[in-house]
Amino acid sequence: MSRVTRTIDWDTDAVVIIDQTALPGAFRTLRLDTVDELIDAIRRLAVRGAPALGAAGALGVALAARKHGTASPEALATVRAEADRLARARPTAVNLRHGVERALAFVEHGPDAVLAEALAMLDEDERVNRAASRHAADLLLSRCPDRPLRVLTHCNTGRLATVAWGTALGTIRHLHAEGRIDVVLADETRPLLQGSRLTAWELADAGIPYRVLPDSAAASAMARGMVDCVVVGADRVAANGDTANKIGTYGLAVAAARHDLPFVVVATESTVDRKLPDGSGIVVEERAGEEITHVAGVAVAPEGTPVFNPAFDVTPVELLTAVVTEHGVLAEGRPRKPALGR
Ligand code: MRU
């Protein structure tokens, strides 16, 4: 493991990120000196995951405030325009806009105040992630007999998706520390492979036993009795608990309900969008067709193939066992079962 401990941080006038497009082949960092560079990194998923995007939003406003200053109405207008472009870089994870707005609230106090607020947000991240994932671990432990669990997860929700620690993967870390993980089944997470590239890298680094499976094998693994519970993160949670997360989450929740398996969403309060009464108002990002028609630059579909490539889906709360944040259970969906069965 590199000595770099934070996925995203500030270092003398620049934002520094772990370049998630290079993993697992190479561990490298990128220095981003401008809001445009940061927006590009967000769109390419060099920095990704809802809490990490929140930090990116706040640090991006700090970049803009330091570059343009905040002393004149013109400078303030420029900073606000850059902040707005940044907030729109990806539409689904509400953390990005939350992070931008939180830092922007300090803009009239000057660039140092903006940066101080952004850094305070980074410091908070690990604490709230640990608290949310502790609640989720306790929920699972309260419902499981005393034996190590086989936990299925989707996408990457670990330190790489946050500033540090993680949400669903943070839950797995807590359980592992208590000797309660048998194996983690990590969906590869098509098409950009956050599961096999990033989650597997984190699990190997942490010494947690895991297997990677194709997304299409998850329901079959449940049917074969290989899964005790499912734990995922979230990109936006509506007030009623409906949850947007990486594409494929909805299908997993349908399958988990069919097999009566607990399905827990772990998120921080900054991922909850209380302005939305339910998930129907969540904007789902659609990404470029090349992510489907090409693998590592090689065409795997006929030229010109039309594509449907949503980056996320929305799972209704009634398919979820619970949505958990740092404050505890935010919403409960499916009725609880007394114990997990093998
Ligand atoms: O497109 P990505 O990789 O940014 O999607 C990330 C996810 O869907 C994660 O599950 C979510 O952000 C939770 S991260 C703690």
Automatic annotation (TrEMBL):
The keyword Amino-acid biosynthesis applies. Keywords: Amino-acid biosynthesis, Isomerase, Methionine biosynthesis. The active site is at D235 (proton donor). The record marks C155 as: Transition state stabilizer. One of its GO terms (molecular function) is S-methyl-5-thioribose-1-phosphate isomerase activity. Substrate binds at R48, G49, A50, R90, Q194, N245, K246. GO terms for biological process: L-methionine salvage from methylthioadenosine. InterPro entries: IF-2B-related, IF-M1Pi, IF_2B-like_C, Initiation_fac_2B_a/b/d, M1Pi_N, NagB/RpiA_transferase-like. It comes from the Bacteria. Its EC number is 5.3.1.23. Pathway: Amino-acid biosynthesis; L-methionine biosynthesis via salvage pathway; L-methionine from S-methyl-5-thio-alpha-D-ribose 1-phosphate: step 1/6. It holds the Pfam family IF-2B. It catalyses: 5-(methylsulfanyl)-alpha-D-ribose 1-phosphate = 5-(methylsulfanyl)-D-ribulose 1-phosphate. The keyword Repeat does not apply. It is an enzyme of class 5 (isomerase). Belongs to the EIF-2B alpha/beta/delta subunits family. MtnA subfamily. Catalyzes the interconversion of methylthioribose-1-phosphate (MTR-1-P) into methylthioribulose-1-phosphate (MTRu-1-P). This is Methylthioribose-1-phosphate isomerase. It comes from Saccharomonospora glauca K62. The gene is mtnA.
